[in-house]
Amino acid sequence: MEHEESLRHPASISAPSRRDALLRQLREVAGGPLGRHAAPGLIRPAVFTIERVLILLTTAAALLAFLVKVPCREEGWVRPAQFYRTCYSDWTEAFQFQGLGSGLLPFAEGSTFDGPLLTGVVAGLVSLLVPASSDGIVRTETVVQFFDLHAVLIAAAWIGVVLGTARLASRRPWDAAIVATAPILILTATSGWALLSVGLSVASVLAFARHRYVMAGVLLGFGAGFSIHVVLVLAAMALLAARTGRWRAVLLAGGSMGAIWFLMVLPFGPGQALALPWQYDPARLNISSSLWAGYDLLAERLGVPALASETATLLAVGAFSVLGGLIVLLVLKAPRRPRLPQVVFLLMGALVLVLPNYRPEFTLWLLPFLALSYVDWRIFVVWQLVEVLHWWAFWMYVAREASSGAVENNIDSPYFVAAVFGRLLVTGYLMYRVAHHIVEPEYDPVRRLQIDDPAGGPFNTAPDRTGPPPVGWNESRPDPHTPAPKDPQ
């Protein structure tokens, strides 16, 4: 109760332009450094509050994401142009070729839609707002309407993710700007439904942080209806419960998640409820940018045997099991209990490293939890540069493999493989940096502010069985605006 009362009082917040090395160098462009006697967080702005600025940034980014698809809106989503213009979208592919444009709802008789359960529900509801074709020919204008309605829905989800991240960040709300402005999110937000599962995973953690455990489980259950990867959020909660002994909240969240899952299975059956988003390929491209796909391309060049699909799946399961085991050991044996977003990021990072059917938009799963775990704008810029290059290489390679495009416009496989392994290396490095902050929490930007785990709900300030007691909320705190100790890279 004392902790909750303290949250109602104004608190000084961290100013990125004072603490981050890159932003300190760029602040002159944005009007100069923050005044020495400024007190962000203690004095509420009249109009431009942090959340309103974040909403404006997200809205601007969503408009850019919409503009990325303008070439296809004007010329149509046709092959191979949609690949070369990098404006492909699962939405329009499902509408044109999986029955939605002809009035067939997903999972109904005659429909070929085979995506995750709630993805089909959302696509079906949106399709009801668009005139259906009566002669089997899907008109371009209805495809554009279907796309535009989804774009509005995704923009709303994007704003929700940003606001949820800012509220989970406690005294570091500006960290949510990473989610608001990430270039890879601008490029992939309108490629599919990935952002909806991201929004539900962030909302579930926010509910958990506010001690609404049943609601957290309900949100996780709906999130799993879009993508089963959100179960890793519950797994992270369970690991911290094992470290602290506080199981009640996790059991409530897990029980309500299971109940929602059961209610979804009843009308549709387990086959649809267990559909995996990485297996949904409405364009039937059958092209991946995973570790295993990169190996196969290298094997083809070197003349050695490629991996069979079943072998790649088994290797992915084994690799994830090994990485998961290492994460479990880190969580249970670290000198101080990790924060919940850190554990979620590591588990999801392990998944995107080994996922057999990886596509560029799956990196969106990591964004909000990276913002809550490790914020260094220099590293963020490098990561985004690599992700954007990987995104471009992926679609150029798809254009070559899935169409008869001009040879001079195609990308050769070595460049695509380099982009794939570049993404893997940078993602692995980010996981290493988060693990380093767990092992040496004095470098953790959140715990340096003498707060424990603002997103942790019952784990926040909980006694740690194997490490030192968490710093109390009422103890003296350092100035949140002074530069952090140098984090060894």
TrEMBL record:
Residue segments, region Disordered: 451-489
Keyword list, A-Z: Membrane, Transmembrane, Transmembrane helix
The keyword Secreted appears for this protein: no
Spans traversing the lipid bilayer: 149-169, 176-209, 215-242, 249-269, 312-331, 343-359, 379-399
Superkingdom field: Bacteria
Keyword Transmembrane helix: yes
Protein name: Uncharacterized membrane protein
Organism: Arthrobacter subterraneus
